[in-house]
Write a structure and sequence with these properties.
The protein is mostly helical and about 120 residues long. It has helices at about 5-30, 35-65, 70-115.
Length: about 120
């Protein structure tokens, strides 16, 4: 595929990535959210989209590296880092929500063990 073809595909992938990221962030920002199969599926979908986007970024840079100016390459890398940062933020938020969900379970288990031993 040509650089222009990759650029178009990447543009679409970036829009999809942003739409999915916003959807997942909205869900993860809710109070007292419980991680269930639906939320996990949204997270995995976003993870796959992030991976696909990174592959397209790499392909595009490989195709244009010899012909692109240093300034344009810098802009490409900065744009790529914006999407990676967004993914890292989502990944961290998901981990935070999962950890919050695990904490009450551990507290309940601990309390149950205490009741049994009394």
């Amino acid at each position: 595929m040509s650089a222009e073809g990759i650029r178009k595909e990447r543009s679409v992938a970036r829009r999809i990535f942003s739409r999915y990221a916003n959807e997942l962030a909205t869900v993860l920002d809710k109070e007292n959210i419980q991680v269930d199969s639906e939320i996990t599926a949204l997270f995995l979908r976003q993870k796959e989209q992030s991976s696909n986007l990174q592959k397209l970024d790499t392909k595009f840079k490989e195709l244009v590296l010899d012909t692109i100016s240093e300034e344009d390459l810098e802009k490409e890398i900065e744009d790529e880092l914006k999407y990676k940062t967004k993914w890292f933020q989502i990944e961290a938020k998901y981990a935070e929500v999962v950890a919050r969900n695990e904490k009450p379970k551990k507290e309940v288990e601990s309390e149950q063990r205490m009741e049994i031993s009394v």
